[in-house]
Design brief:
Helices cover 22% and strands 24% of the residues. By secondary structure, the protein is of the alpha/beta class. The chain has one domain (7-313).
Length: 316
Amino acid sequence: MASFISSHYSVKIFLLFCVFQLSLAARRLDQVVDDQSRLLRYHNGPLLSGKISINLIWYGKFKPSQKAIISDFITSLSSSPAQSEQPSVSSWWKTTEKYYHLSNKKASSLSLSLGKQIIEDNYSLGKSLTNKQIVELASKGEQKNAINVVLTSADVAVEDFCMNRCGTHGSSSAGHVEGKNYKFAYIWVGNSETQCPGMCAWPFHQPIYGPQSPPLVAPNNDVGLDGMVINLASLLAGTATNPFGNGYYQGPAEAPLEAASACPGVYGKGAYPGYAGNLLVDSTTGASYNANGANGRKYLLPALYDPKTSSCSTLV
C-alpha cells in the first residue's frame, strides 16, 4: 500500500488569474523570459522515461461514451495520424520531448500507452474525497512504469476542487520494488460539469468572472468530459516534465509553473484573457478544436511552453 504522504501540483483555476492578473502565471511570458534564458528551470531530478502505461481509475458514474472520450485521448498521444489528420494530439505531445533533450540526465524518450481501467462506481470512499483518499485510489493501479489517473464523476466532491484547482498531479511512495524505494506518479481530474464549469470547463462554458463571450461548442459534445481532457492534458505534460517535484518548473516547488500552466488560457494563436485563440471549427457540429485524435476524435488542448523558443507553442 502506498504511503499517503505525497507531493502534488495542481491545475489551478487560471481563468481568474488571466482575467485579473493576480499571480505570476498572469505575467506576460516575454517579461518573465527577459529575467533568464529559460522560463522553466531544470532542478536536476529524474523525468519519466521509457514505456509508461496510463492506468485509468474511474470513481463514480461514467457513461461508456464518456470513458471512450478519455481512453481515445490517451491512445491518441502515441498514434501516428495521416498528414490529412494534422494537427494531431501526438504532434501536440512532441513538445514535451524537447525537455528530455535539454535534461542533463539525458533521459530516454517517453512512450505512453493506455493501460488498465479500474472501475470504482460504487463510491467505496463516499462522495466527498480528501487528498489522502485520492492517493489511496491512485495506489490501486500498477505502480511501476505507470501513471495512475483518478477520474471523479460530476457528483463527487474533492478537497479544494473548484476552490483553487481543477486537478492535481503528484507522486507517492510505493514502498520497496525490486529492493529499491520507489515512487509512482499519479493524476487526479474531476468532472466539473455541474460543480464549476465556468472555471474548470472554460472555454466550453461561460466564465464566472471576466469577459462574458459565448462559450465554445465542445468537440465531443460533453462539456464536463471535454473540460476534463484539457485538465488531464495539462497534468500529463506536468507529470512527464516534473514528475517528482524536482524536474522542470518555475516558482515555488509547492505551486510551480509547469509546461502547460506556464501558458494559462492559451489554445490558439491570438489568445488573450477571456479568448482562447484562433481555433479550428468543425463544419458539421460547429465545435471548436485544435487537435485530431484516434477514432475520428477532435480535442481542444492547452498550449505548451516550448523550452527551445521560450514561447507558448500552439497547434493552430
